[in-house]
Amino acid sequence: MSEYRDFAQREYDHVRETILPDFDWTCFDTPSPRTQPKRPLAEARVALISTAGAHLPDDPRHAGGADGDHTYRAIPADATEVALHHGGYDTKRARLDPDVVFPLSLLRELADEGLIGEVAPTAYSFMGYIPHTAPLLRETGPEVARALIGDAVDLALLVPA
Question: If you average pLDDT over every residue of the chain, what do you get?
Answer without folding.
Answer: 88
